[in-house]
Amino acid sequence: MNDNTGNFPYLHGFSQKEQDRLRDQARILEFLIYQDINFSNIKKLIEVGCGVGAQSEILLRRFPKLHLTGVDLNAKQLTSAETYLSARPELHGRYDLLNMDASDLQFPSGEFDGAFLCWILEHVPEPARILGEVRRVLSSGSKVYITEVMNFSFFIDPYSPHLWKYWMALNDYQYEKAGDPFIGAKLGNLLASAGFINIKTNIKTMHYDNRNPERRIEVIEYWTELLLSASHQLILEKIVSKEIVDGMVKELKLVRKDPNAVFFYSFMQAEAEVDR
Distance between CA 126 and CA 117 in Å, rounded? Predict the structure, then answer.
């Protein structure tokens, strides 16, 4: 989930640990995110909010014929992305990484024939403006895929009161800082307002119980790291207490060990086309 604005305080920070977490997240969710994405015929793809290159690597690996242009406003993330991608010789010459504001893309109209956004609109104050720019730089018939959060869908069992207090505080904080932790459900409206056509939305669900205990453990461990990555900022601004964070960690450890634990979370993926 990458910051592409200069003003919004990205909750999770820009440490090496966070950069590694983003790549681990991309690996864990790769199948769910990409099972319905098809860029097979795309030659010039723009990735908005490319961050540390976690999704960029997957896109380039899965679709070997495309050239990717990744844009992000955070220079530290872009440096990390360059290091990450340049270590893969098979990707050389197939991507460009640019420091750029997604709400004011410095490209001519119709420059690209595909666009990809993942975990970015939740962090920006004006998602409609970004989608308008994305539409402008796409050629007629081009397709965009957007993957976004729907944080109201989260459920975990056994009941964990510290976790719920933390989760609600995190969402309230993001919303108050002009982000939107519920934006996934709004993608259809946003795309229509931006002038896209043939809009489709698809709910992607992570639902793990006793039918797949190994995957359940992996996802709960990933989710724990995701939650903790925001804890420093939330404690610093006195949104939550250290006691709540410590209590949440204990509860998640118990959930991880519980033989009847349940994890549920849904996010939204939208696709749409450009018609000029």
Answer: 14
Percent of the chain with pLDDT over 70: 95
Q: Are 144 and 272 in contact (CB under 8 A)?
A: yes
User: Does any domain span residue 7?
Assistant: no
Reported as a single tens digit per residue, the pLDDT across 51-105 is 999 999 999 999 999 999 999 999 999 999 999 999 999 999 999 999 999 999 9
In the numeric block, the tokens 């018939």 are attached to 141
Domain range spanning residue 44?
16-273
245/235 Cα distance (integer angstroms): 9
Of 225, 245, 93, whose CA–CA distance to 169 is shortest? 245
The answer to whether the CB of 15 falls within 8 A of the CB of 60 is no
Contact 261/25 with Cβ under 8 angstroms?
no
* Inside any domain, residue 6: no
What 3 state SS string does 140-178 have?
EEEEEEEEEECHHHCEEECCCHHHHHHHHHHHHHHHHCC
**3-state secondary structure (DSSP) of residue 253:** helix
